[in-house]
Specification:
This is 4Fe-4S binding protein. By secondary structure, the chain is of the alpha+beta class. The protein is about 15% helix and about 25% strand.
């Protein structure tokens, strides 16, 4: 089963809670860009390895993470 994981990069405040709660270690801070608040936002490293546990989305205080199941 595959999942599409997206981050609202403009809403991310870089708190890194999502990184702490991802059991697979698939989330990192994107040092290559800054959002309008001047923060390096979180990003998913490898969507193909996401198991859809929702831990990251549930722990995000600003609800900027969306996880959708991809029908195959």
């Amino acid at each position: 089963m595959k999942f599409n994981v997206t981050f609202d990069t403009e809403g991310c405040k870089g708190c890194e809670l999502c990184m702490s709660w991802c059991k697979k270690g698939l989330i990192s801070i994107d040092k290559s860009c800054l959002n309008k608040a001047g923060v390096h936002p979180a990003m998913i490293i490898n969507k193909d390895e996401c198991v859809g546990c929702l831990n990251c989305a549930l722990m995000c205080p600003d609800a900027i993470i969306t996880i959708e199941k991809i029908e195959q």
